[in-house]
Predict the 3D structure of the following.
Amino acid sequence: MIVSVVRITLVALVMAVLPMTLAATTPARATTHAVEIANFAFAPATLTITVGDTVTWTNQDAVAHTATSTTGVFDSGDLEQGESYSVTFTAPGTYDYLCTPHPSMTGRVVVLAAATPVPATPAPASATPAPASGSPLPDVAMEREAGINLAQILGVAFLVLGAGIAAVRVRQQR
Ligand SMILES: [Cu+2]
C-alpha cells in the first residue's frame, strides 16, 4: 500500500520533470525588428513578428515623430532625429499605431503566437529568415539554454530530496 504510494509519487515526479526537459530543448529565439521612420512614413508599415520579439523604431527625419498605439498599448513620445524606441510584444494580436503629430502616418505590428513545437508541417525555407553566411548561432539563445539547464538541475535536486524524505518516512512507518 505504502510502496505503491511511493511508486505513484515517483511517476508523478518523472512526469513533472519531463516537460521541463522538453521546454529546454526547444528554446524560443526572440528577435529584434527595426522600423525606420523616414520621409513621414514607417518602414515597413506592416511588420509581422512572433510573441517575445522586440520592435525598435528609429526616427531618421529632422522632424520629431512618435510611434503611438491606437489602443494605448505603447507610446514612444516625441522621437527626435536619431532617437529610438523599443517595445517587446508579449501577447499575440494586431497592434495598430500612428504618429501623434502626423496621424496620417500609420503602421501595424502583427504579433503571431509562438511557433508550435510539433514539426509535422515544416515551414517553407523561404519563411525562415536566412542567417548571414558563416554567422554563428546567436549567443542569446545559448545563454538562455544554460539558464534553463541550471533551473532544471535545481528542480531535479529539489524533487530528489523530496523523494528521499518520502522514502525515509516509509521506512519509519514500517
Ligand atoms: Cu510624424
Q: What stands out?
A: Strands lie at 32-37, 42-43, 46-50, 54-59, 68-69, 84-88, 93-99, 102-112.
